[in-house]
């Protein structure tokens, strides 16, 4: 007989072998059950990372590694965040690793201070 507690660690109970003439010892009747608590809790195996731009945590499948930055430089970012940053700064070059963001990022041209728009109407 096996009694399981909340931690899924089996407590073995000696079977009643009084009067048993089969020649078996109590040791022969013990059963051990191993239960993996981690798997039984349904813990998702989805890797999460933080976007280096908006700093929100998201599934790795929703993030890109758009440049050569690695390790503690937080290489992952949402594509929309990187594109917005490229538009804001006017180029597609990473300030940290100096590599262009890949693939297919674009940048809106920056206006200089002497390019003031005129209102003709």
Automatic annotation (TrEMBL):
- Domain RING-CH-type: start-end pairs: 43-104
A Gene Ontology molecular-function term? Answer: zinc ion binding
Q: Which CDD domains match?
A: RING_CH-C4HC3_MARCH
Keywords assigned by UniProt? Answer: Metal-binding, Zinc, Zinc-finger
- Membrane-spanning residues: none
Question: What's the domain of life for this entry?
Answer: Eukaryota
**Pfam name, any one:** RINGv
UniProt GO cellular component terms: membrane
Disordered: annotated segments: 1-30
In its UniProt record, which GO terms are filed under biological process?
protein ubiquitination
Q: Does the keyword Isomerase apply?
A: no
Name the InterPro entries for this protein: MARCH-like, Znf_RING-CH, Znf_RING/FYVE/PHD
Q: Which SMART domains match?
A: RINGv
Keyword Ribosomal protein among UniProt keywords = no
Q: What is this protein called?
A: Zinc finger family protein
Organism expressing this protein natively? Genlisea aurea
């Amino acid at each position: 007989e096996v009694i399981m507690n909340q931690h899924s660690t089996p407590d073995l109970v000696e079977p009643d072998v009084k009067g048993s003439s089969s020649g078996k010892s109590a040791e022969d009747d013990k059963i051990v059950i191993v239960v993996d608590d981690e798997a039984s809790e349904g813990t998702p195996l989805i890797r999460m990372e933080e976007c280096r731009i908006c700093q929100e945590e998201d599934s790795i499948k929703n993030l890109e590694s758009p440049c050569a930055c690695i390790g503690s430089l937080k290489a992952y970012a949402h594509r929309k965040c990187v594109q917005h940053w490229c538009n804001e700064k006017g180029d597609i070059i990473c300030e940290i690793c100096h590599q262009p963001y890949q693939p297919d990022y674009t940048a809106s041209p920056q206006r200089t201070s002497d390019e003031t728009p005129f209102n003709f109407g």
